[in-house]
Amino acid sequence: MSDIKTQLVVLGAGPGGYSAAFRAADMGIDTVIVDARETLGGVCLNVGCIPSKALLHVAKVIQEAKHLSSHGVTFGEPTFDLDKIRAWKDSVVGQLTKGLAGMSKMRKVKHVQGYGKFTGANTLEVEGSDGKKSTITFDNAIIAAGSEPVNLPFIPHDDERVIDSTGALEMKDIPEKMLVLGGGIIGLEMGTVYHALGSKIDVVEFLDQLMPAADKDIVKVYMKTIKDKFNTMLETKVTAVEAKKDGLYVTFEGKNAPDKPVRYDRVLVAVGRKPNGSLVAAEKAGVKVDERGFIKVDKQMRTNVQNIFAIGDLVGQPMLAHKAVHEGHVAAEVIAGKKHYFDPKCIPSVAYTEPEVAWVGLTEKEAKEQGVSFETASFPWAASGRAIASAATDGLTKLIFEKDSGRVIGGAIIGTNAGEMLGEIGLAIEMGADAEDVALTIHAHPTLNESIGLAAEIFEGSITDMP
Ligand code: FAD
Fold first, then answer.
1. Residue 124, beta-bridge partner list
2. Dist. CA 374 → ligand 1 center (Å)
3. Residue 2: its pLDDT value, please?
4. What is the pTM of this model?
5. Is 57 helix (H, G, I), strand (E, B) or coil?
6. What share of the chain has pLDDT > 70, as a percent?
């Protein structure tokens, strides 16, 4: 690998990094993107958002096929060919990473494979997988090195039966009994997949609610839908995991703790992700990294060093791909001389569980904390024609309005396809729409989206009939 001189180097080729690199190249900036992986796409495409959704698709189809028996259509018990399931997931990932490689080539973005570390405010050293080193000299840099799963000190992570999300996506086998340690989105998504494929799933969460960032009323509906799928232990923590020949013996403590250690075939540790800010020798470039590994940036994604920007998981929560993408665009545009800022009114969150749980803007919890005067209106899916016709009545659409203005400031949906529906609420928030705007928007009938218009009508007090 020979030394390179470029206008912009992007360190990390996840959704933040490749979006920044492509936008910069589109604006005529000579751009190099560096990633330790062979393929572009980062965590999201390779071991995150996309492979998990490919497997969740499989899980959804299995569940729907089972439900059909109550509608008069019965399929046989599903049989699983793990190699083929894995191949399906890998083909989805491959299709997208190949697409990214093509887009990169088309834009003449140079992809350097290797591990990058700063050696100064204008130099990055990259070590290739063959051990050879090269230096990239740059005018500007964007750090987009993402995050990695958090390990816990009292857990034998070196035992191959203890897995993180990447291990879970490898699908080496289907364990008979698996513990999901952590009741956040990633753990619950993977739990959904393994349950559909036949595993018995226990979920343990230290807090008093799964998906702690979402509002209680929404999660309550989710809890109802999963009661036969997962054994959930809230307000309970794991204090030890002992690896024995016949399984992993887990000791619990807390409100719902079993009184003796429980044996599992696998333990999936999904207790959050830590930023990779400390792993790129940012200090050599003068960039400040906090003790947790986050890099502080301003609204233009600029670090404390004028020519170095940072985006994505390593600049803070929420650690989500779409946030990284938008931050990447801002950083590239600022480097190109545009006066752009990352200042969204809201960033959507979606758990692609079965059913999905999605929220955007302020939650009730946040509105209370911020002293915002608000009202809510909810439409239960049990009253939706489309939901009834689709056997999807376990759902709820909630809108949160600023009390005086009636403006939409938040919303949440639990139910099938909630993530797809959430965009309308996000747009309403960004556009400053009020309840009347949403209520007067004619939604097609019968759709699940109608529930958004109907929730607004409830707030308006103008609801006349049910679909
Ligand atoms: P990343 O995607 O983390 O990419 C960083 C890249 O930098 C990596 O490829 C890494 O190899 C590279 N890198 C790091 N350090 C160096 C170095 N020193 N030298 C060279 N390369 C380096 N988010 C969603 O929005 N929706 C979802 O549905 C979703 N599902 C997820 C499911 C799972 C199982 C996981 C784990 C995550 C999921 N996420 C999801 C989160 C999402 O993947 C991240 O928020 C997103 O990938 C962050 O993008 P990023 O650009 O910050 O960096």
1. 118, 136
2. 35
3. 84
4. 0.96
5. helix
6. 99
What token pair was written down for 378? 């909810």
| Complex ipTM tops 0.90 | yes
Index of the ligand 1 atom closest to the CA of residue 314: 52
Burial of 25 (0-12, 13-18, 19+ CB in 10 A): buried
- Our measurement of the distance from residue 32's CA atom to the centroid of its chain's CA atoms, rounded to an integer in Å, reads 26
CA separation, residue 185 to residues 47, 282, 319, 364 (Å): 15, 30, 11, 19
Q: How far is CA 452 from the centre of its chain?
A: 23
Q: Strand, coil or helix: what is 408?
A: strand
Residue 275 Cα to ligand 1 midpoint, Å, equals 10
* Closest to 455 in 3D by CA, of 398, 410, 406: 398
Dist CA 189 CA 55 (whole Å)? 9
Residue type, 49: C
Residue with the two structure tokens 């020979």: 2
The residue to mutate among 44, 135, 356, having the most atoms of ligand 1 within 8 angstroms of its beta carbon, is 44
Flag residues of the chain having pLDDT under 50.
none
Asked whether 21 and 104 are in contact (CB, 8 A), the reply is yes
The answer, yes or no, to whether any atom of ligand 1 lies below 6 A from the CB of 270, is no
Please tell me the predicted confidence (pLDDT) of residue 462. Answer: 65
Q: Is the shortest distance between the CB of 313 and ligand 1 below 6 Å?
A: yes
- 312 CA closest ligand 1 atom index: 52
Ligand 1 pocket mutation pick from 34, 43, 89, 314 by most atoms within 8 angstroms of CB: 43
Query: In the 8-state DSSP scheme, what is residue 109?
Result: P
Query: Edge-to-edge strand order for the sheet containing 408-415?
Result: 349-351, 356-361, 408-415, 396-402, 374-380
How many degrees, rounded to 5, is the angle at CA 182 between CA 176 and CA 187? 60
Region of residue 358 (left: phi > 0; alpha: psi -120 to 50; beta: else): beta
Q: Which residue has tokens 């920044």? A: 20
Q: Which helix (H) or strand (E) holds 181?
A: strand 177-181
Do 53 and 133 meet the contact criterion of CB atoms below 8 Å apart? no
Mention every residue, 6+ apart, whose C-beta is less than 8 A from residue 62: 78, 196, 197
The helix/strand count (H/E) of the chain reads as: 13, 22
Residues comprising the chain, all counted: 467
Helix H or strand E segment including 134: strand 133-143
Residue 467: per-residue pLDDT: 59
Atom of ligand 1 nearest to the CA of 148: 3
CA distance 26 to 12: 19
Note the pLDDT of residue 464: 57
In this structure, the residue with its CA closest to atom 47 of ligand 1 is 44
Taking the C-alpha atoms of residue 411 and residue 390, their distance in angstroms, rounded to an integer, is 23
> Crossing angle of helices 82-106/15-26, nearest 10°?
30
